Amino acid sequence: MSWFPLAVCGGLWGPGRSPLVLRIRKDQFALFSAHQSSGFELRLAEFLQAQFADAAQIPLLTLRPEVAAQIERAQGYGVKSEQDIADYVVTAWLLGIDFDTRFPAANEVLTADLPGEMKARFLEKWTKEMFEKLKERD
After folding, report:
1. In terms of Cα–Cα distance, which of 40, 43, 119 is closest to 76?
2. Residue 5 — φ and ψ, nearest 5°?
């Protein structure tokens, strides 16, 4: 169980008075965390639908679990911040959900002992370069 002191104005502190303490159980904290994660998952699915016509054709109820799976994969590689996870998910959308194992360059960086932010910046730059090269071929 976690203890979080909560300072509240209005005379709760003073001679003979204890500070107000809010107690949050682990199960409550897990529920708050899951709710926050669910909100990010929804925002990211909606972002994909807004940016990519093919994603817009997929019902949100179908797309969200796919986004959740990619978020989990990103976190497994040490990619933690919302922005960095979003970069990973967009890369997966553009290159395929198995890009992390199908492309050796991506796999090498994702499995390296690097900060998540560096991994995400690599994916962003690398994906743009791949599409630029493909565009040059046309």
Report:
1. 119
2. -70, 140
